[in-house]
Design brief:
single chain, 289 residues, Neuraminidase, four-stranded antiparallel sheet, 20 strands
């Protein structure tokens, strides 16, 4: 194939690729970004507006009042624990003696019908305010349970082993926004990083690109629209953002897309025919001889 033909085919292919690419496509912002305390193992985090409190693996409690720009030791070195109850709209949800209790408004807490036995040491619970009635709770054996809006409880997730000899990663933390910003539930693990359920606990995906695999604590703050992760390598943050939208082709763009497909097909066919003819020339010449 001579140089002129090669240049022509390259131009056709480049034009076709451009036609196949929708306008306006852009890369999404980083899903997780490191904040402070990189190189320090953290085991817990709580967040409220600009105030962040973390607990280090060495047993030190630190506080920031400037959204994580600086941290100082907390007098008395109190422990840091996630909230024992969550509120979603007008509903309050609590794990007590291994069962989920529910209260509406200022009413008393009562056992939620159908609540599974989570185990006496169960403590992880989340209820996204954007999906009233939906609750996700973790049993001590690692089973993730989900309460649907109809009030029925069912298993939502059972983690598989991460590989020999690590076994099944421990579930360390659970959070969701307590204001109706998103139905997503975030689950921290010591081995699978962060899992997220964009439908309130029904389906789960890996959602920790760039994060360390060991997540020891999660906290969500609706005022800053942020999820914080206490990890084996400091504090990280995820700012609430929309998932990338699928490409949309409109009118002329759709026409040029099909033109591009046709041109690519023709270019490939031409290259194949020329290559076949070139390969057959020696055989034809030998036969004539």
């Amino acid at each position: 194939m001579n140089l002129r033909r090669t240049v022509a085919l390259s131009a056709i292919t480049a034009f076709a690729v451009a036609a196949l690419t929708p306008a306006g496509a852009s890369a999404a912002a980083p899903w997780w970004v490191p904040m402070r305390l990189q190189g320090t193992a953290l085991v817990a985090v709580v967040a409220s507006g600009k105030t962040l409190v973390v607990r280090t693996a060495s047993g030190m409690t630190l506080r920031s009042i400037d959204s994580g720009a600086t941290f100082d030791r907390v007098p008395g070195n109190p422990d840091v624990r996630p909230p024992a109850s969550v509120r979603s709209g007008n509903d309050a949800w609590v794990i007590a003696t291994g069962r989920v209790l529910h209260a509406t408004g200022s009413g008393p807490l009562r056992l939620d019908p159908g609540s599974p036995d989570l185990g006496s040491r169960a403590r992880l619970i989340a209820a996204p305010a954007a999906a009233p009635g939906v609750v996700v709770a973790v049993a001590v054996d690692g089973t993730v349970w989900r309460r649907g809006q109809d009030g029925g409880w069912g298993r939502g997730l059972l983690l598989l082993p991460a590989g020999f000899p690590n076994g099944v990663p421990a579930i360390t933390s659970l959070t969701a926004f307590t204001q109706p910003l998103s139905v997503t539930v975030y689950l921290g693990t010591d081995g699978y990083s962060v899992l997220a359920s964009p439908d309130g606990g029904d389906d789960w995906i890996r959602a920790g690109p760039g994060l360390p695999e060991s997540i020891r604590g999660l906290a969500s703050d609706p005022t800053t629209r942020t999820v914080y992760a206490a990890t084996s390598d400091g504090l990280w943050a995820h700012r609430l953002q929309a998932l990338p939208a699928p490409a949309v082709y409109h009118d002329a763009a759709l026409v040029w897309r099909w033109v591009g497909i046709v041109l690519v097909t023709l270019a490939v066919a031409v290259v194949a025919v020329l290559a076949l003819r070139r390969a057959m020339r020696p055989a034809v010449a030998q036969k004539r001889a």
